[in-house]
UniProtKB/TrEMBL annotation:
Protein known as: Winged helix-turn-helix transcriptional regulator
Residue intervals of the HTH hxlR-type domain: 12-110
InterPro entries, A to Z: HTH_HxlR (IPR002577), WH-like_DNA-bd_sf (IPR036388), WH_DNA-bd_sf (IPR036390)
Lineage start: Bacteria, Thermotogati, Deinococcota, Deinococci, Deinococcales
Top-level taxonomic group: Bacteria
Claim: Membrane is one of the keywords in the record: no
Natural source organism: Deinococcus sonorensis
Length: 125
């Protein structure tokens, strides 16, 4: 018997997977690892604005979910590398496409925001 999946349902496991993919830092780590293995410090430098604490937690979450593999070298100081697993690489194409879309449509989104804000409306909240 197969389970009926519905990503719109809060109780569906696919909903939690979508949350994983949609997380800002998760997407940026996958994007940063798109070309191969990076050390922790390289990831921290590449992803502007991410705190060390948030990067550590994001990497742990991605490792737990099978998207990122971690390799620790027993040297002083510690040397840790991260790369995408086969599952992570399967997500890479989607994340790269989303990054390209964001870059290509950035001005349109900023213009729409300015128009919206210029009408005296604010974000609901």
């Amino acid at each position: 018997m197969t389970m009926a999946l519905n990503v719109l349902s809060r109780s569906c496991p696919s909903n939690s997977v979508l949350e994983l993919i949609a997380g800002k830092w998760n997407m940026l780590v996958v994007y940063a690892l798109r070309d191969g293995t990076l050390r922790y410090s390289q990831l921290h430098t590449a992803i502007e604005g991410i705190s060390q604490k948030m990067l550590t937690q994001t990497l742990r979450d991605l490792e737990r979910d099978g998207l990122v593999a971690r390799r620790v070298y027993p040297v002083v100081p510690p040397h840790t590398e991260y790369c995408l697993t086969p599952l992570g690489r399967s997500l890479q194409e989607v994340v790269v496409q989303m990054g390209c879309w964001a870059e290509q449509h950035m001005m349109e989104v900023l213009s729409a925001r300015a128009d919206y804000d210029g009408q005296g409306r604010t974000m609901p909240g």
